[in-house]
Write a structure and sequence with these properties.
alpha/beta, Rossmann fold, Hect, E3 ligase catalytic domain fold, four-stranded parallel β-sheet, three-stranded mixed β-sheet, 18 helices, 14 strands, about 45% helix, about 15% strand, elongated
Length: about 575
Amino acid sequence: MSSLKPISALPLLNPAPRAALYLRVSTGRQAENDLSIPDQKRQAEAYCLAKGWGVAESFVEPGASATDDRRPEFQRLMEAATAKPRRFDIVLVHSFSRFFRDHFALEFNVRKLAKQGIRLVSITQELGDDPTAIMMRQIMALFDEYQSRENAKHTLRAMNENARQGFWNGAKPPFGYRSVEAERRGEKIKKRLDIDPVQAETVRLIFDLYLDGDGQSGSLGLKAIVNRLNAQGYRTQAGSKFSCKFVHDVLTRPAYTGTHCFNTTEAKTKRQKPVDEVVTVAIPTIIPQERFEEVQMRLHERAPRKTAPRIVNGPCLLTGLAVCATCGGGMTLRTGKWGRYRYYTCATQARQGKTACKGRSIRMDLLDSLVMEHLASRLLTPERLGVILEALLAQYAANQNNDAARLDSLRNAAREAEQKVQRLYAAIENGVADIADITLKERLTTLKAQRDETKRLCEMAEGPAMVIPTITDEMIDHFAHDLRAKLHNGPIDLRKAYLQAIVDRVEVDNTEIRIFGRKDKLLNQLMSDRPKPAGKVRSFGREWRPVGDSNPCYRRERAITSVP
C-alpha cells in the first residue's frame, strides 16, 4: 500500500485590517446635547467601509479633555492595544486632536502603538509614514496644543467675569447651598448660590456640636460628631454617610461666612494661585465670621502635638493662657537658682532657640498679679460688665429674628418636599408613572426621606425659643465682687478654673499685656456660681475688651488688658 502524502496547504489571503474607533468630546454637556459623537462614529464607519477595514471595537469618551491621559476609555484603548493576540491593527480618530492635544504626549503614544504594530490614522488629516508626514503631524499637534491653551484662557476669563458678577459657574455647590436661577440672558441661564434650608441646618449643627457640644457634655470631636450625625440619620447631599474628612471640610470651608473664592488653584497641578487672581463671590451667610474663626483656632489648638495635658492640669495659674505675642507659642514654666525663681518663658525659644523666636520671659508672680489686678480694675467692675452684657443681650435678640427667618425657610422647604411627593403619587394614580419602575421607587424613597427630614428640622426649630435672661444691677454688683474675691483667694486649681471660665488668652509682649475673652463666657459665669469647666484645649476668640476706648502703652512693670 502506497503511503499518503500530505497535500500542501494553500496560502491564505491577507485578512482585512481591523480598526478600533476612538470617539471623544471635551465636556459632559457636549456629550448630552451635541451630535458630535454620533457624527464621528458615522464618518469613521464610512471611512472603514471605503478602505475595506473591519471595525473591531469602539471606545467612546463622553466629556474628557485631551490635554492629558486621565481618561478611562483612553486607558482602556491603550491597554487593549498591548493585548496578545492583537485585537486591532489601526486606531481611527476623526482628527489627531481627538486623540491628544499635547504634541509630546501624542508622539509618545503614537510610538507606543507602533511598537505593537498599530497605526494611528485620522479621517480628516490623512498622512503617510514618511518623514515629511511625521513632521506635518507634529506641527498639527503643536497647533492643537496652542488652540487648546487659548481656548482654556478665554474660557477662564469668561468664568472669572461671571464670578465677579456674582454668578455660579457650575460644579457641585458646597454642602449647605444650592444653585438657583437668578436671571436669563438669551438662552443662557445665570445661577447664584442660595442656602439649602435642610443642609444649612446640618452645617449649623456641626459647628454647634464642635464648639458647644450637645448640652450633655463638652464640645465634641470630629469622630463623635460623625457618629452622632450618622446615628440620627443625617446624610450628605449625595445621600451617603458622613465621614471625618467631610466634617473637617465643613468646619474649614470659608464659604459659610458669606464669601466663596473662585479660581484659587491650578486645575492640573493644584498649585495655589496668587491672591490677585482669585475672585471672591458674595453668597448668603450660614456661619458668622467670629464663630468660624473660633472653630479654626480650636482646630489648630486641638492638634495632638499642640496641646499637652499639663496645660490644663499644671500648677501655674496662666499655663495654657499665656502666649508669646511674637510667635503665638505658649509661655511655659522656667526656674532659676534651683527653683528659687520662677518665670513664664516663650516655649518656641526654649525648644528651638532665638532663631525661631526672640522670645521673652517674665516673672511668674509679676505676670499673675498684673493679670489679676487688671481684670479686677478694668473688667470686673459693674459699669464695664453692664456695657458688655447689654451688647451681648442685644445680639441675642437680633439672633432671634434670624431664627425666625430660618424657620420660615424650613417651612417653605417642607411644603415643597410634600408637594413633590403628592405630585408623584398623583402621577402614579393617573397612570402617568408606573410604581413598578425601580428608578421611580428610588425617587419616591428619596423624596419621602427629604420630606421627613425637613419636617423633623421644622419641629426642632419650632421648639421653645431661647429665653433671654433678665440681668439686674444687683446681680452684676454681686457677680463682680464675688468673682474678684475668687480670683485672688483660694487654692490654685480653683482660681485657675475661674480664670479659664472667663479668659481665653493672655498675650505677653515686650511693653504690654493683652487679655482676650468672649462675652458669652461672662454671661454664662454670671448665671452660675461655679466655674464652667473648660475643655482640654483652649479657644481663642477675640470678643471683649476691658478698655475699649483707648490702648495706652505701659512699661514692663505694668500691663494693659485689651481685646478688639
